[in-house]
Amino acid sequence: MQTPNEIVHNFKMPVSVIKLQYYLLNVSLGQFLKAFGLVVATSQMQATYARKSFPCFDEPAMKAVFSVTIIHSRDTVALSNGKEKEAVIDSVAVKITTFEPTRKMSTYLLAFIVSDFVPIESNQNDLLIRIWARRKAIDDGQGSYALNVTGPILRFYEHYYNTSYPLSKSDQIALPDFNAGAMENWGLVTYRETALLYDPILSSTGNKERVSTHWFLTQTVSFLKALEIQAHQILAVCFSKGAAVLRMLSEFLTEPVFARGLSSYLNTFAFGNTVYTDLWDHLQQAVENAPGIHIPHSVENIMNRWTLQMGYPVVTVDTRTGSVTQKHFLLDPGSTVDRPSQFNYTWYVPIKWMKTGVQQPQYWLLQKTDTHIPMRVSGQDWVLANTNVSGYFRVNYDPDNWDRLLSVLNTNHQTVSIINRAQIIDDAFNLARAKIISTTLALRTTKYLSKERDYIPWESALRNLNYYILMFDRNEVYGVLQAYLKKQIQPLFEHFKTITSNWTRVPTGHTDQYNQINAIGIACSAGVEGCRELIKSWYREWMKNPSRNPIHPNLKSTVYCYAIAFGGVAEWDFAWNMFKNATLASEASRLRSALACSKIPWLLNRYLEYTLDPTKIRKQDATSTIQNIARNVVGMPLAWNFVNARWSYIFQQYGKGSFSFSNLVSGITQRFSTEYELQELKRFKEENLSVGFGSATMALEQAIEKTTANIKWVTENKAEVQRWFAQEST
Prior knowledge:
This protein is α+β, with helices and mostly antiparallel strands. The chain has 4 domains: 22-226, Zincin-like; 232-306, no CATH class; 310-427, Immunoglobulin-like (Sandwich); 600-730, Alpha Horseshoe (Zincin-like fold). It is 47% helix and 13% strand. The strands form 7 sheets. It has a 5-stranded mixed β-sheet with strand order 10-11-12-14-13. Strands 1-2-9-5 form a 4-stranded antiparallel β-sheet, with no helix packed on it. It is globular, with a radius of gyration of 28 Å.
């Protein structure tokens, strides 16, 4: 004890390879670097790994100021949360880097990295902004996009929250291997390469969107963490249903009132801890200071019903009587809700709605059953509830109103907004799964799609029809399902062929670029004439001249996959060689996924073996590659047999501490829909109890439940679905 307030303690902790607390990143020759033997050491303290780095009270509510010093070799740089100062000891082959003390903060936000990475940087309003990555990635300009948008986004948050970014720097680093997608360490944010780097020439719109979305979310959380508010109701909600709930809240409070309440909350509790009611209190104060805002209950009373009980409601509007009811929405109607709710699964529901295309005053449903006479209509009038999908609930109607809505879609679909067209489809399919409406009614919402040119309704339909594909692509129903999809997608395929001048131009609209991908992908899978040859011709041209890829980045994922599916060994081997030599992370990711699209069993089995060889497939990508193979109808049984036979090894190597390991079980079993497959799952569980399942334990139980539900759904719906597709595909 040197002073009354200082303890000196010797502590040693070995750096682990591919563990949660540290990563040693060994990147092999030709895969992501041309240099051999790069080693990067990076910390990952969340959730409770700071205690393995140094003695501490490793609890988020207990905060401290951290002064970090790192001793490292001269040919590397050291990074931590604060700005660094560097000193070199003469005659010793090391550097000592010290960092400015942090603000008072939690242990899980501390970070330190040693690497030979290089930055690009800028100084904006006395804030140092740096993007760190492999030298090749920086030299190729892959960090410029993140650098250019960091400053404006931070200024947006400062304006929106009415509070200043409290740190002296913002470092962001792209790691070739990183088990998490990103980690919002205070002042030193770590990412997978695919979540931060963007090549303006080689990356697609989708890559840019994923980087933007991932980066924007990470920066949002990072900004909040920079204020060091343990705002569990914000962060926990953000990562689950909360985005929709918070959007609903801002809609009925109005955005200015919501922003003022949030700003007050953040400024009051900066560098402190909160309880969940604090946010509601500050939003309530903002409401009371806004004379034009009237809500039926306090913010706390309204929001407790959305945050303190499971799920969300389905609201049923009967336009014959004006009756409006709500009940807890359950996708599986046979499931038992064994968790009681203090609110009896009743919500205070803000309903924005329109009548025959005209917006009506907002209506609040405050009990299980009510009557709202303005919603009673007759003749050709129709009601559409939850306009702009501003509320977090599903909507059902009486049969007559469903018929009128479908008539509007079939005759003049643009009368209904794009997002509400998508909502009608999505609600109908989910209501059918819940046995609230018929499967046929849900399928009828897709009949108008031959006239639809917008992305969001098509995406809604395809995501819902994907369940039908998974359930039926191994039996006779798939033939008529495929014929129906071909009939519906062909006009969209021809539309994009026309507006791109026979595929020579990129659509100008952002969502049109996404919908072009849907049009080509579904057209090729459904056998639309001209699609297969288009794909094969692009890929052949690339194979002839590997240094000049004629495939537009937006279309690469789709074209690579279908070219390999339509091709043979030569196409697969070419893609494998391009994957091994890819220097852009997003390009390597596209190729790795596409290699799973082959229809040749022995190629897929060989690829499965590659997944467990870290010199071929990096450890962070192994389980997702197996999942990609399982998405392929040919690869699914191969992937299941592979994992079944090697579970002990896979679990030991990849299952302990992995955030995404549970996805392996759910991904491989998503097609399971027969009694034999159910028994296989149960046998797998019994035979591996001694090995364990780790984070996949819950996923395995859910897979058994979902397989049971799939068996029941197929039994009940197969004949009806087959008849409907046969009738509508002629």
